[in-house]
Design brief:
The chain is α/β, with parallel strands linked by helices. The chain has one domain: Spore Coat Polysaccharide Biosynthesis Protein SpsA, Chain A (Alpha-Beta Complex), CATH 3.90.550. 54% of the residues lie in helices and 11% in strands. The chain contains 15 helices and eight strands. Strand 1, helix 2 and strand 2 form a beta-alpha-beta unit. Helix 10 (264-295) packs across helix 14 (369-392). It is globular and about 75 Å long. The chain starts with a helix and ends with a helix. Residues 416-426 have low confidence and may be disordered.
Length: 426
């Protein structure tokens, strides 16, 4: 009986190691395409008409700066409108937005109705109605705490004219050097923007929209509809479009800067919401994407499936890592390593090296590289219990707002990298 159990455990952990090795190889293959300077799209004459939507809940401290920023985009004024969604606001968000020149759509939920960003957007789109496709070629989404490089609409125009229908611009942080928490967010952005987003873009795979700074073809928005109700409505909308054959595309040369929480507790609350939303979308759409990938041999659907099950990989990696450590310490006989430990260590060191490269190439002299790597390690380790707990509580769809207070103008952000500076000047 003991030999049979040992044999079964050996097979189980061999299978786990093969699965983890697949994830490592898959990620590394994509990440190699994130090296080097990103190619620019051919500059085209401004043609597309845009509606910029800004969902905002009690954002009087920051919304005015964003509206000023958007009013000064390097794009013809008559080709875009700005509308702030004052979602259940009890402050001066609506009044400030109007005074800065934006249109305002006020949304007041009825008693008992669910609240949050997805529902505010849904209401605004219903109010706008058929004008979405009659007056506009595309709709862009920003959060109220954001700032964006002035070339944003030019870049969206270029890619829409090229045929792209769902586009995510480069995600950056407005306050990376406040403390180690905000630094960890920024470091993770630089890392993912290259190793995942840019790499996948060069391979022709689908990208992921990140909740802000994304642009949607107005007819695609009408076709898909705004039915995303998860805590990560951006991820849900990405997968809805992918299932219909429209992958998200990447824009590396326009940047959106958002404010990240300075408090570690606030960071955990925010990331717990993201993790719950990710699990929700995973259970809802991963089986459909896997089925489509098998039935139609669709690599884009398979890639979307891999992205959705990523939290499962993190949990599996954590459990297997703990098991390997314990089995090594106590000399357990039923654990056999698939690869020598030196290779696993090499994979980890490659990841650290890649983080350093992305910070050098994309943040320039803005940030301390050693502090960035150390903060990211702590950041990622803190994600492990969040993914475990979010799996157990994924049914909790309570939207907990992140406080925003950094009222900066776009010219006050220290654009440290050559690419971001070029984006500002474009």
């Amino acid at each position: 009986m003991g030999d049979l159990l040992n044999s079964a455990l050996i097979n189980v952990f061999m299978g786990v190691q093969f699965l983890l090795l697949f994830f490592w190889v898959y990620w590394m293959f994509i990440s190699f395409f994130g090296f080097g300077k990103a190619k620019r799209f051919r500059e085209k004459r401004p043609q597309k008409r845009f509606l910029i939507l800004v969902p905002a809940h009690n954002e009087e401290k920051v919304v005015g700066n964003l509206v000023d920023n958007l009013k000064n985009l390097d794009y013809p004024d008559d080709l875009y409108d700005i509308a702030v969604i004052a979602d259940n606001c009890t402050d001066k968000t609506a009044a400030i937005s109007l005074s800065r020149g934006a249109k305002v759509i006020e949304h007041h939920s009825k008693p008992g109705e669910l609240r949050g960003k997805p529902y505010g957007i849904k209401y605004a789109l219903e109010v706008i109605g058929e004008d979405i496709t009659k007056k506009y070629d595309a709709v862009c989404f920003f959060d109220a705490d954001n700032l964006v490089t002035l070339n944003y609409l030019k870049e969206m125009n270029n890619q829409l004219l090229k045929g792209d229908r769902l586009i995510q611009c480069y995600l950056d942080s407005k306050n990376p050097d406040d403390n180690w928490v905000t630094l960890s967010y920024a470091t993770s952005y630089y890392y993912m923007n290259r190793s995942w987003q840019l790499g996948k873009s060069r391979l022709g795979l689908g990208n992921a929209i990140g909740g802000t700074g994304f642009c949607v073809d107005s007819h695609l928005l009408k076709e898909i509809g705004w039915t995303a109700r998860s805590l990560t409505e951006d991820l849900e909308f990405t997968m809805q479009c992918l299932l219909e054959g429209t992958p998200a595309r990447w824009c590396h040369h326009a940047r959106v800067y958002d404010e990240k929480p300075e408090s570690f507790i606030a960071s955990c609350v925010q990331r717990l919401r993201w993790a719950r939303g990710h699990w929700d979308v995973c259970f809802k759409y991963a089986p459909k994407l896997l089925y489509k990938s098998i039935k139609k041999l669709d690599i884009l659907a398979f890639d979307g499936f891999i992205y959705l099950i990523n939290p499962g990989r993190i949990i599996l990696n954590s459990l297997s890592g703990a098991t390997i450590l314990l089995s090594t310490l106590f000399n357990v006989k039923w654990f056999n390593a698939l690869l020598p430990w030196q290779i696993w260590l090499g994979l980890i060191l490659f990841q650290f090296g890649y983080v350093t490269y992305t910070m050098i190439s994309d943040s320039g002299k803005r940030l301390n590289k050693i502090k960035g790597i150390l903060s990211l390690i702590l950041f990622n380790f803190s994600y492990i219990p969040l993914f475990f707990w979010s799996l157990l509580t994924k049914g909790d769809k309570t939207w907990k707002r992140t406080e925003h207070t950094r009222a900066l103008a776009i010219n006050e952000i220290n654009l440290g990298s050559a690419e971001s500076a070029a984006s500002k000047e474009a």
